[in-house]
Amino acid sequence: MQDADPAVHDYLHDRVGTLLDGLAAWVRVPSVSADPAHERDVTRSARWLQAHLRETGFPEVEEWDSDGLQTVFGCWPAEDPDAPTLLVYSHHDVRAVKDQEWQEVAPFAPALRQGRMYGRGTSDAKGQVLAHVWALRAHLEATGRGAPAVTLKYLIEGEEEVGSPHLADVVREHADRLAADVVVVSDTMLWSLEEPAVCTGVRGSLNAHLEVRGPRRDVHSGVVAGAAPNPLTELCRLAGLLHDDQGRITLPGFYDSVAEPTAEERRGMAAVPFDTDDWLDRTRSRSVQGEAGFGVLERVWTRPAAEVVTLLGGDPDDPARGVVPAVASADLTLRLVPDQKADTVMAQLRTWVAEQIRDGFAYELTTSPTNQDPYVTPPGHPALASLEDAMSRTLQRPAYRIRNGGGAPAALLAEVLGAPALFFGTGLPEDHWHDSDEKAEVQALVQGAETLAYLLEDLPRRLRA
């Protein structure tokens, strides 16, 4: 492997303070896309990023608003008109917060402590976006170029945390402007700070909402208990039936199209340094559960999953009234793997609910219109080898190949644009995405920027070869 480039390394490490000041300024903008009260903050977040890109030198920076929250587009053409084009996808909106649960800092008052920056969006995903900008600056400084070695495009949306309801329309509407040879999706996680590992795929996701109705109104339990249909009890029963005693999902035909990892992928995953106790500590999971016959990494990377993420009924926030509730609801998230399709699994879920729910209850099952299919990077693509070598060059050791258990719009981008998708993120399992005290490791951000700088330098040679 190549030695690290001192010019890239020194540029980034000499400017860490300035780089982090920029991240902190952006994190202070509470761009919560799920809360209408923060709609203007999402606009301010988009405007902050536009100004930052212009300051960096991007000659083309635009704001796209397609009946939703703002998407930022940036383009910096290469000096060579025959150079390949790289499109970077990420997002600038953030998850909602429960202020009272944050102990390190207030969610939008970022602070640097012991090599970690705390605050909502530091890791998911404003830090990831800025790692790309830092990489570009280091690339230009180290090579003396007046423009990047590739034509570089950014697509940074403002609705990812609410399911990207307008992303497909934006991508199709602007497909000519977004045309690229390779897409890099930056909304993923690393394996660790010490062990380089390239993500080669993500699971798909399907989000569904199930509402079960019992009595026609809340009824005093002393009047009807034992004789009336209790929707909470029925919903809990259904949740319990979602998996069998081996941890397998019971939807009809659910596993029929599941593609098994190749033998090479299995060997690669087996080589990743893994310790169960360490994983439990980093993720704050209490124990290992799931499908029998598979290890932890197989379960979260290559096997489908079904989770109940919300269960609501009765009086969750008020003193109990002692009633049998009229309505109970649950939100379900299903994680899909190649070659499952979200539309097919949704039909399976509808069939399963209709077969399992008992007489005497009414129900309604709805699904998000923006479900995502799984995606795996073509294993022999030269861009993947370039990213692998760039990461190895940064950490000076060979990179593993992993997957991520979450979802991303990689399948959409690859299909519409006709370009393969790579994955590169700077998050870690212990960064507390979507939870209180989210943080980003400064080392991960700087190493990530160094890796991306090497990718910008090497990609033209690899793709031309």
From TrEMBL:
Q: Does the keyword Protease apply?
A: yes
Give the taxonomic lineage as stored in the record.
Bacteria, Bacillati, Actinomycetota, Actinomycetes, Kitasatosporales
Q: What organism is recorded for this protein?
A: Streptomyces galbus
* Coiled-coil region(s): none
Alphabetized, the UniProt keywords read: Hydrolase, Metal-binding, Protease
Give residue ranges for domain Peptidase M20 dimerisation: 200-356
What's the name of the protein?
M20 family dipeptidase
Q: Which domain of life does the protein's organism represent? A: Bacteria
BP term (GO), one: proteolysis
